[in-house]
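Practice problem 4.
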């Protein structure tokens, strides 16, 4: 469980805020800054050196980062950003106004400014927007001895040294070696003789979610990013992939509940603007479900017991549909399911839904018979429940595949949307069967 580093916790655990700031990790200090009143943030940050500030700021959320970008002048910010890893620096610049970004970049070393400007031009959700440029690369004709000597000089400037990337003289990525391979190789050996030519890599325009899947699939600590000419542009490390997975999972969660991030900039009215349209759409869906019930008003008046089972039918249908949908949304997100798996997965979910529907249908039918002393009512309830649950499993499986096929995010098919669709279909099934057997029910 994530620890909340608020003032009460800090004082209880460390004795004082001063001792906490002295001993805590940068990530914990960043979390503390996100919990305290914003007026106190600058006083805390100013206790640290520029390098320490850079490390702490790299862990802050967007809301706090924007505040810091406002309270410091461009010269101070340029010093902080110069001490950040390139991917974190680009992220921090990305939340500033265009004018502030230009002002900050103009105060930085030209080479670094150009590098960061290039990173800012990539889509923030692409491999190019995620990568950093603190990689270690050498030419294929360099010797192991030369490489190790240079690594000793570069180690403090690079974010990771797990892999050494090998380039030809056209700067095209041709291989990779691990630090372990370097340490066991003979000093005079050239990199070309020990490198792995089968390099797992991604392109600058690849979506960040796909990059995270590749790092996870191949158990990599980092993956190189290349342009269309196969030239090495940067690397994406596993810590960035974890951030992406968390971000994507959070986005899907908000889409499932058709809401928005609690940190969304804009306050109350912005949250209202983001949520209200979806709720209005769902309201019309609920009114449609209500109109289905009103269309069978005579049946309800004739047999009041039918109304008792409406909530049960709707809730169970929604539960089954949401379960099936969750499996598909997660599978499509992680790459475990593809569009080509649609038929096989649909058949499997229908089989699962059939067994569950049979068990629950028989159970609720028995309850209806015992409760209302009516075999006909029990049959109507049981059959309606069975058909509704099988239908719900099918709809919950089909919807995200269809949305994915249309090029949208499958998560938008989830939550209230799927529930509304299942509610309407379940009520139609229920009352249609009841109407057919009404003569025997009364």
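Answer key:
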């Amino acid at each position: 469980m994530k620890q909340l580093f608020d003032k009460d916790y800090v004082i209880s655990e460390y004795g004082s805020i001063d001792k906490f700031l002295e001993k805590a990790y940068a990530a914990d200090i960043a979390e503390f800054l996100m919990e305290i009143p914003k007026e106190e943030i600058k006083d805390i940050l100013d206790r640290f050196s520029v390098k320490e500030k850079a490390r702490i700021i790299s862990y802050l959320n967007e809301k706090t980062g924007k505040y810091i970008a406002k309270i410091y002048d461009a010269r101070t910010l340029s010093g902080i950003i110069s001490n950040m890893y390139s991917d974190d620096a680009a992220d921090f610049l990305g939340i500033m106004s265009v004018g502030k970004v230009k002002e900050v970049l103009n105060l930085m070393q030209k080479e670094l400014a150009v590098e960061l400007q290039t990173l800012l031009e990539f889509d923030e959700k692409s491999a190019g927007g995620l990568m950093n440029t603190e990689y270690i690369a050498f030419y294929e004709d360099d010797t192991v001895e030369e490489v190790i000597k240079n690594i000793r000089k570069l180690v403090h400037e690079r974010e990771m040294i797990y892999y050494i990337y090998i380039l030809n003289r056209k700067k095209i990525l041709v291989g990779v070696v691990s630090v372990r391979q370097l340490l066991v190789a003979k000093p005079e050996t050239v990199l070309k003789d020990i490198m792995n030519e089968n390099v797992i890599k991604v392109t600058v325009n690849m979506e960040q979610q796909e990059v995270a899947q590749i790092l996870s699939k191949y158990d990599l600590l980092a993956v190189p990013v290349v342009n269309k000419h196969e030239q090495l542009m940067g690397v994406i490390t596993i810590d960035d992939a974890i951030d992406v997975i968390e971000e994507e999972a959070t986005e899907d969660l908000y889409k499932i509940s058709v809401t928005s991030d609690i940190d969304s900039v804009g306050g109350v009215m912005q949250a209202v603007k983001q949520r209200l349209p979806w709720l209005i759409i769902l309201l019309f869906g609920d009114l449609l479900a209500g109109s289905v019930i009103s269309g069978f008003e005579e049946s309800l008046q004739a047999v009041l017991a039918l109304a008792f089972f409406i909530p049960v039918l709707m809730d169970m249908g929604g539960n089954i549909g949401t379960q099936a949908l969750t499996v598909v949304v997660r599978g499509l997100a992680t790459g475990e399911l593809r569009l080509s798996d649609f038929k096989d997965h649909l058949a499997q979910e229908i089989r699962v839904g059939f067994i569950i529907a049979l068990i629950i249908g028989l159970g609720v039918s028995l309850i209806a018979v015992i409760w209302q002393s009516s075999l006909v009512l029990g049959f109507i309830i049981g059959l309606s429940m069975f058909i509704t649950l099988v239908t719900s499993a099918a709809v919950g499986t089909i919807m995200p595949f269809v949305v994915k096929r249309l090029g949208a995010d499958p998560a938008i098919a989830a939550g209230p949307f799927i529930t509304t669709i299942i509610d309407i279909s379940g009520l139609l099934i229920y009352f249609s069967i009841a109407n057919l057997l009404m003569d025997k029910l009364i």
